[in-house]
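A note from the maintainers: we've had questions about how concatenated examples are separated. There is no special marker in the raw files; a new sequence line simply starts the next protein. For clarity in this README we add a label.
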Amino acid sequence: MKSAFWNIVFAVFFAFLVLAGANLLYGSGLLYHSIPLFDFVLMALAIFRLVRLFCYDIITKFIRDALAPCPKDSFLGTLHALLACPWCAGLWFAFFVVFFYYASPLAWPVILILALAGIASLIQVFANLLGWHAEGKKREVLGAGNSTSTCG
């Protein structure tokens, strides 16, 4: 049960943040019941990019490395597990992106930049896959040409 303690604390804290954030936005009249599709897509791409940034990218590796030696059943060990799990981190980043989307117009340029970086990441991954596929086909063709030639 000790190892689950910090997981429970983080889950309860997350639930509290979501409820408090929604209450704050609702009380301020900033919480809308619908989001334009374009904004929804941009927020999804921004969340995708934040998850990639904190869970996988080299630029934030120092954070993950600093937390890695921490005991798993500690606060920092649980924080490391959170950053190692894209699904877990995605929930937290989704909350922050949505909250700031509603709370401040200053969040819009940040969301846009993150979304554009997310699209660029997807394009790069697609280009890499296409290149790897083409290289594999090229090797197949070259390999097939070498195996059928006979010297006589």
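[label: protein 2]
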Amino acid sequence: MEKRKLSVPYIGLMFVAGFFATIAFDFWGQVISPSIGWANLSPEGLAQSLLSRLGLPSNAFLGFFVHFYIVGLIGYPMGWAYVFKPIWVRVLGNAYLFVASAIYGAGLWVFAIGGVTTFAGLPPFLNFTGITWVALIGHVLYGIVLVAILRVIDLDED
């Protein structure tokens, strides 16, 4: 497997995949889930809590900016490309990338809802309320859409 170089075109295409994955996450959590009577996700609230905990300016816009742009378009896609996928490919090869994408999404959920919430001063896994499970589905969906888009634009082929 050739190691990916950090280049402007590569990062731009990662942004595109992260954009569509974040849109899928938000559409699930803020449109579909509440329309079927489940919890409504408001991930910018967690980002606001984290910013406050770090002593940084915190408001709804900054929470949205951090969650959508920093995490959804940069952090999570780079985590796939430079951390999770290389480990997966080293252990299992390029097989089962759909399964890998779902596992990656579940790992993002553990990181965000299990770890970031605790660091931000909220209960771990938000006390396993309805929002916890909607967030699990949303993060798994994010991982699947991210990898699907990368495969469609042939960025994730090795």
